[in-house]
Amino acid sequence: MSRRIVGTLVAAALAALVLTGCVEEPTPTPTPTSSASPSATPTPPADPELDLEGTAADNLDYFDLVNRRLIDGGGTLDGRAFVDNLVAAGFPKTDLEVTPDRTAINIAADNIQFAVRINGGCLIGQYGNVGYASTTAPLLATGRCLVGETRPIDW
User: Fold this and answer.
1) How many distinct structural domains can be found in the chain?
2) d(CA 69, CA 71)
């Protein structure tokens, strides 16, 4: 081999050694492992309850629960069904209002509104072609919750 080739090979080997020394091997870092710790099973929230001493806002969750159970149960969902359901749930019948559930030409109304007067406020629900919705509102100056014609609750 010629001196020149040997010199080149030696130079290449030295360069490789020098460059190898410049490259640091990464040191592995431990990754945190999560240990399974026993956790308490969350307790499901209790169903809301009627509070006849509370405000309309205090009772909205209960009002919704009662109405949604009726709706989910199916059957005939007219004004009387909502009134009877609310009375069975503990709301005083004398504090309820409901709009007519039949039109002037005696077909089912698209929507029914029903309300409960409670401690100066109102729980107002609506059910019909747009589903179920509810809200709270202050009593009207008339002492009622619903505007316009309401159906007599005489049963």
Assistant:
1) 1
2) 5
Q: Distance from CA of residue 133 to its chain's centroid?
A: 13
- Answer yes or no: pTM beyond 0.85: no
Instruction: Write the CB contacts of 23 (distance below 8 Å, at least 6 apart in sequence).
Output: none
Cα 139 to Cα 117: distance, rounded to the nearest angstrom: 7
Q: How many CB atoms lie within 10 A of CB 12?
A: 10
Residue in this structure with the two tokens 């640091």, named with its chain if needed: 24
Q: Are 17 and 30 in contact (CB under 8 A)?
A: no
Give the residue numbers spanning the domain of 60. 56-138
Residue 124, strand partner residues: 115, 135
Give residue-wise pLDDT tens across range 39-70. 667 777 789 999 999 999 999 999 999 999 99
